[in-house]
Specification:
- By secondary structure, this protein is an alpha+beta fold.
- It folds into six domains: 1-32; 39-109, SH3 type barrels (Roll), CATH 2.30.30.40; 112-232 and 397-443, no CATH class; 241-376, no CATH class; 450-530, Immunoglobulin-like, CATH 2.60.40; 552-686, Dockerin domain (Type 1 dockerin domain), CATH 1.10.1330.
- It has 17 helices and 29 strands.
- The strands form eleven sheets. Strands 6-5-4-1-7 form a five-stranded antiparallel beta sheet, with no helix packed on it. Strands 17-22-21-19 form a four-stranded mixed beta sheet. Strands 16-18-20 form a three-stranded antiparallel beta sheet, with no helix packed on it.
- The longest helix is centred in the first third of the chain and has 26 residues, at 2-27.
- The chain is elongated.
- The model is unreliable at 12-34 and 535-549 (pLDDT under 50).
Length: 694
């Protein structure tokens, strides 16, 4: 009996082992979670705050890997409990996976899978939406089938629009934001001090081109929170109600029960929500948009003094939408905004000497100047493509459409979202990149420029300039080593490649690299030519016989021998015979060589040619490169070809070294090749100026 039980136990055990083996590839695959239904959620934090995404559950022993702004839509792929019992979600946002506490993620719903909808697919194709738009629109359609997506095909290429929207001053970002969000253009960033220039009273910096690209690309905002930046902003009384408006105003200075406004027409004291609804009906503008605009412009809890009515010199005036409120002409943004409020415009109810007139009249201006002329979405109020494009923008804050769209999304109840045929006007550019522009994430000081670069006892050509990265030097055969010195503009920049270098005969290339705190690097290249013969043609033996006397090389006053041994003062078009007539060598002779060191008997003297001095025995002992300023292609003339090469060099698509780089510095200002040199060449070509060759 006992043996039979034991035999049955072994049989059952073997069967279980077989089952486990058969299904182990499903049950025990490491790193995968099973049985969790993906969800979506919306980050819900206070204004000015953010939600930390961490690399693990809980705050103890984990690191913050990303910060999520209010309104960010996240995908929830799992959940777990921290040691204190708090629920944490495993989330995905912007391609990054991490964990966030569930407390600040609201509107959690099962992710609705899109089922093939032939009619909707045909509609997307008929609208001309690119493939890169469609997946996001399919997800929105699955959840909100009544929504209408209209493709607004703009007559601008992506690159052209981006270049124009990135012009300094058109798009701003907070001065304390990460470095990759701020522009490094010359008029945006001071490379000499490692600091950014500020705008509008000092709180803002110019946004980087990469950040502008991210916020300009509609594909980054086709989610149920930020889609509202494409909502058409006309007033629709059927589902834009006072009750929903009050949800937007809750927690702000305009919350019902906190402050009131007198209605100038009726004399009654009313809530902000009531006055804003009146403004919507008179202006034809979405009331939710009016409310979120005021919150963005003024602040939610402690509003700007521009609506206090107590600013000295402007008592009793208000500007609720910050019209014309920017620092200029020695006045603050608030002062200029109130100067505008004091102006006269009957249609817009100015002067705005009551809160009612400022709210309603400002809304009428929004409708007249923006909504009713085609800038009828939050996106188009920032990125203007109507009339004279790029110039008529309501706000310079690059994130304004994103932040306002999140507030609008909260205003609509789920019932209204699901039951209303809301129209979204979504821009499509010509020649768009295949994938959406990425959000720049780098941080740290970006300054990778040197403050100085030198070689002990020698002068570099050209004179050092922080933006010039190619230098040259010719030394005698007797020079066997040099010492490279360099320092960075900012202390956080790491400099490598300095110190002592041994030189071989011929060309030596030395690279000094400045690596900024943010990881970007700039390489400065020094080309040192160590001549293959002594500069003096041998040694002098004054006490004995058989010594060779150094040749003496002189030139007349029309030319100039520089500290780096280059010869300048050559008129474009001068011939070999012209230059030969100016050179005298005592104790030897000379040849004129071309750039390949072949003897040149006739023709023009070009940048890169050399006066080669020979000793009495006919051996070359020293070389003096010739430089014709402006002749960067080495043909002995200054032509349009040289202008084109200089342009390419400044753009980084062509290289210049040695005598050719010196020739490019046509204005000889010591700052290397810049746009100023192009202007000098252009004047020479037009006959309105002449390059000083000496």
């Amino acid at each position: 009996m006992r043996r039979s039980i034991r035999k049955n136990f072994i049989s059952i055990t073997m069967i279980l082992v077989i089952i486990v083996c058969l299904f182990s590839h499903i049950v025990f695959r490491p790193g995968e979670a099973y049985g969790y239904t993906e969800k979506t959620g919306v980050v819900d934090v206070d204004e000015g705050s953010s939600l930390n995404m961490r690399d693990g559950v809980g705050t103890s022993g984990t690191k913050v890997i990303k910060q999520l702004e209010d309104g960010a839509v996240v995908t929830i792929i799992d959940e777990a409990r921290a040691s204190d019992g708090a629920l944490w979600y495993k989330i995905v946002y912007g391609g990054v996976t991490g964990y966030a506490i569930s407390t600040f993620i609201t509107n959690v719903q099962d992710k609705i899978e899109y089922k093939e909808d032939a009619d909707f697919e045909a509609y997307l194709n008929a609208q001309g939406f690119p493939e890169s738009y469609k997946n996001a629109l399919r997800q929105l359609h699955a959840k909100y089938p009544k929504w209408v997506f209209v493709a607004d095909h703009l007559n601008y290429t992506w690159d052209t629009a981006l270049a124009n929207q990135s012009v300094t001053g058109r798009s701003l970002i907070g001065k304390n934001e990460k470095s990759s969000w701020k522009s490094l253009e010359t008029n945006s960033y001071n490379w000499d001090t490692g600091t950014w220039y500020t705008f509008d009273g000092g709180a803002w910096c110019a946004a980087s081109k990469e950040l502008v690209a991210y916020y300009m690309d509609p594909r980054n905002f086709l989610n149920e929170t930020n889609i509202w930046m494409f909502e058409q902003l006309s007033y629709q009384s059927a589902f834009q109600t006072k009750e929903n408006l009050e949800k937007i105003l809750k927690g702000t200075f305009m919350e019902t029960g906190k402050n009131t406004v007198k209605n100038d027409e009726t004399g009654a004291t009313e809530s902000y929500a009531s006055i804003i609804m009146t403004a919507a009906s008179k202006s034809g503008v979405n009331p939710y948009h009016l409310a979120s605009s005021m919150i963005i412009e003024l602040g939610g809890t402690n509003p700007s003094s521009i609506i206090s009515g107590t600013v000295s010199g402007y008592e009793g005036y208000y500007n609720y939408y910050n019209w014309k409120a920017y620092a200029a002409n020695g006045k603050t943004a608030v002062e200029n905004g109130l100067i505008f409020a004091k102006g006269t415009d009957a249609k817009a109810l100015r002067p705005w000497n009551t809160r009612y007139k400022a709210i309603v009249g400002g809304a009428i201006m929004v409708g007249t100047d923006y909504i009713n002329v085609g800038q009828d979405t939050l996106y188009y109020k920032k990125f203007d493509y109507v009339g004279t494009p790029y110039t008529h923008q309501y706000m310079t804050h690059i994130r304004a459409p994103e932040l306002e769209s999140a507030k609008t999304a909260k205003a609509y109840s789920q019932e209204l979202k699901s039951g209303s045929p809301i129209v979204f006007k979504i821009p499509v550019f010509k020649n768009m990149p295949e994938s959406a522009a990425a959000m720049p994430t780098g941080d740290g000081n970006p300054n990778n420029c040197l403050a100085s670069l030198s070689i002990n006892n020698y002068s570099l050509t050209p004179t050092f300039s922080k933006f010039t990265t190619s230098y040259s030097l010719i030394v005698d055969k007797s020079v066997t080593s040099v010492n490279i010195n360099a320092s960075a503009i900012v202390s956080s920049t790491k400099v490598t490649g300095t110190g002592k270098y041994d030189l071989k005969e011929g060309s030596n290339t030395i690279k000094v690299v400045a690596t900024a705190q943010n990881g970007s690097a700039r390489t400065y290249t020094i080309t040192i030519v160590r001549q293959d013969k002594p500069a003096g043609g041998g040694t002098t033996n004054p006490g004995g016989s058989g010594g060779t006397v150094n040749p003496s090389f002189t030139i007349n006053t029309t030319l100039n021998k520089n500290s780096n041994n280059t010869i300048t003062g050559i008129t474009p078009g001068a011939t070999v015979a012209d230059i030969a007539a100016t050179v005298t060598v005592s104790g030897g002779s000379f040849d004129i060589l071309d750039a390949n060191k072949k003897v040149k008997k006739d023709g023009k003297i070009c940048t890169g040619d050399m006066i080669a001095v020979k000793d009495a025995s006919g051996n070359y002992v020293s070389y003096y490169p010739t430089v014709v300023y402006g002749d960067v292609n080495g043909d002995g003339e200054v032509t349009i070809k040289d202008l084109l090469i200089l342009r390419k060099y400044i753009l980084g698509t062509a290289s210049l070294n040695g005598a050719y780089l010196q020739a490019g510095n046509a204005n000889k200002d010591g700052n290397g090749v810049t746009i100023k040199d192009i202007l000098v060449l252009r004047k020479q070509l037009l006959g309105t100026g002449k390059i000083d060759q000496k």
